[in-house]
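Late entry, N-carbamimidoyl-L-glutamic acid complex.
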Amino acid sequence: MDPVRQFFADNALLPHGWGRDVLFTVDGSGLLTDVSAGAERGAARHLGRLVVPGMANLHSHAFQRAMAGLAEQRGDSADSFWTWRRTLYDFLDRLTPDDVEAIAALVCSEMLEAGFTTLGEFHYLHHDPAGRPYDDIGEMAGRIAAAAAATGIGLTLLPVFYAHGGFGGAPPTDGQRRFINDPDGFARLVESAGQHLDGLAGARMGIAPHSLRAATVEEIGRILPLAGDGPVHIHVAEQTQEVEDCLSWCGRRPVEYLLDSLPVDARWCAIHATHMTPAETGALARSGAVAGLCPETEANLGDGLFDAPRFLAAGGRFGIGSDSHIHIGLAEELRLLEYGQRLSLRGRNLLCDPGAGTGESLFRAAVSGGARAVGQPVDGLQAGQRADFVVLDESHPSLAGRPVERMVDSWIFAGDRSCVRDVHVAGRRVVADGRHLARDLIRSGYARVMAGIIR
Ligand code: NGQ
Ligand code: ZN
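Prediction complete; structure with ligand written out below:
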């Protein structure tokens, strides 16, 4: 364990607003024990002029980073989410554990460079290309853990339970063979995954029944105890066809069915939740579940628009994920979340708290909702939370000369990851001058993998 350390920021975004001259005290396990504004710097290490908390990226399928941009040409028939999914299934046929580790390391390093300090990995590529478990059923989970360890990102691993190809326990398709487990196999997988996380600082585990298409509510009820007090994530109501299939199978809509059938509470994260009636939106907000929004992927896949104004007005919590990694950007995800509403409602500053800018409102909400969704102490710069610092570059053209209260708005709407200078996880610096410390090694490993799999 490292000794107690102190860090100092000229300006830091604290839970209740910007603080000046902020002194952070960090214990040996990387948690903040004290945060004091108006302090003397003393011997503390200077972080920078502008420090904001790290954010969790709550929804990721890391391997999909390797096919970003490869499904953007029109096929013979109308392209849709479902034709994209066929491309995905063909692509993932080829990936070995070494490939997945190298791709996941790239994803983690890109997330860190963007300002994300925790990864929620919704991990479902379990078995070998023939659909047989590896000798260690948690082999692939171990590779995700290795990538997190190599990059220093905090990891919440969410092993996925996937058993069916449609509502009502329909048999899986051949393209899904690498994902499939029965509840007993899944219990072994969770056990092995837990062993792979042993000794990995900043790691946590939960579970993820993939969707109401891929798991029955009876099966989900059976596997729930495996989550312990960890988070439970599920994809729900992403596509209108899923809503129609659910209605014709059970007479209820997916979110309605989920809330009626399972004990959904603040430990849960409903990924996408795009298609809800106003009643479902209110009920999901009241359940305490976090909405896991992935605006860039949802736009890329043509999912639809989440009713954020209604959800937030009902007290709903949300966080963001980069899901398919069509692009990895913290500013861009939050910006698109707001822009979707602007385009549809023809107004401005729609997801804005009174007294704060829109970018800052979205950023704060996503830090806090993200922390809840990944089940980690990453809810902002306050005592008891992890010392995850994102240092912004005040000389960046999009930030230069702005008052401190407009900095996050300027980053989110006018900037991108080039505004991020340094990133620390648990008090340890992993990004310096915008570059992950192992960037070159990680990128060359990734390039080698890509040369082998793109045919
Ligand atoms: C996934 N992605 O699990 O990667 C899914 C595709 C499915 C999104 N839903 C597979 N965006 O949903 O069946
Ligand atoms: Zn997903």
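The first strand starts at residue 5 and ends at 14. Will revisit in the morning.
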